[in-house]
Protein: UDP-glucuronic acid decarboxylase 1
Amino acid sequence: MIRQSLKFRKTVTIVFVLSLLIIIFLILRQDKINKTINDRPHQRVENGFQDIAYRDFNHMPKRNDYNQQNLKDMESNNKVVDNSKQELQEAKARIELLEKKLAILEGRIPQKYPEVKYLGYKERKRILVTGGAGFVGSHLVDVLMTQGHEVIVVDNFFTGRKRNVEHWFGHRNFEMIHHDIVNPLYIEADEIYHLASPASPPHYMQNPVKTIKTNTLGTINMLGLARRVGAKILIASTSEVYGDPMVHPQPESYWGHVNPIGPRACYDEGKRVAETLAYSYAKQEKVSVRVARIFNTYGPRMHASDGRVVSNFIMQAIQNLTITVYGNGKQTRSFCYVSDLVDGLLALMASSYTLPVNLGNPVEHTIEEFALIIKNLVPGCRSTVATGAAVEDDPQRRRPDITVAETQLNWAPKVSLQDGLQRTIDYFKEELSRTTFYNNQTYMDVKVKSPH
Structure:
């Protein structure tokens, strides 16, 4: 990767030098044309006087002929000037295009890395993160990298994006593998965070069969890898395993109320099977498993068009569009900021607790209230709140009981809804204003240092 970075820098330098040479050539050419135009009339007058000295006045050209010749010369000069102007405009357009390409190339060259703690070989772990280029996975990768571990990201980029982790490209502790975990993977790892799966309704409903395969075959492959190499594995489950709950708030002991043939079943039932697989491997193959039931999470690096409540409302409010609430707006949700969730995942992996654990924020809001909160946080927002048709199988109440996380992991969310939403709004504003790639848009609250 370091050699690739050097090649990129050489390419940037060569393109920049060529651009300068083109500009200098065009300037010199324009000066030469202007000088030719200015010199021609004087030359014509001097030649006229020499002809008078050596020729008879009877042989001098007529005045009309002389004027016609002047007109022809002027037209010719005008054509030269027009052509040179056109060439100059084309050159400027090419230079602008080159500048844009240079900006893109510079954006792909990692100039600095976030500060990374040094760990000795006994403390440093080799950690695999499936779905590591996604929303939650990329934030988890940031923390693991800054802690000094070796991190391998595996992603098929269905919903993940390279730019979520591009600030680590070339780092000695970082490795990226473009791979679909539906197919077996053979690598070495001490710990596995299995986060790979589309999580927003539009994404997992887009290809329901693929969603089921990712959560079943993909989970089997990761559990098989954990068994072969003796790694501890954390399965990222979801609050969707509770379906449209009849118990509120939802404790881990609640079995759920799920429609097995509804539009959300590919994700709900896929995650329920993933949990079953995890504990089957734990009992039969003695695999060390952890299961996190993740509730609604938000923060920077969310997809702007993933169809979730937070991203929908913020994008509509920023653009002064109508904020659409599906249903009557009385359904409730609890929103956890992404950094709090990552802390919970790390605490669960480090603990000895093996049963499922709810990770989410227990502060509950109706969707209608949430829409008004976001509208008030966006300066100058002129959006109105309107209701739309209810979504099929949409849970009416959702709030985690986090007693187990508090007692077993000593974990609880810290970031308030106001602070978390403000950071997310700032992120989406910058996303809307983006025109080129550059590496400082990573939304990490860490220091940076020179490349290794």
The chain is about 50% helix and 15% strand. Confidence is low (pLDDT under 50) at residues 41-55, 437-442, 446-452. The two ends are 11 Å apart (CA to CA).
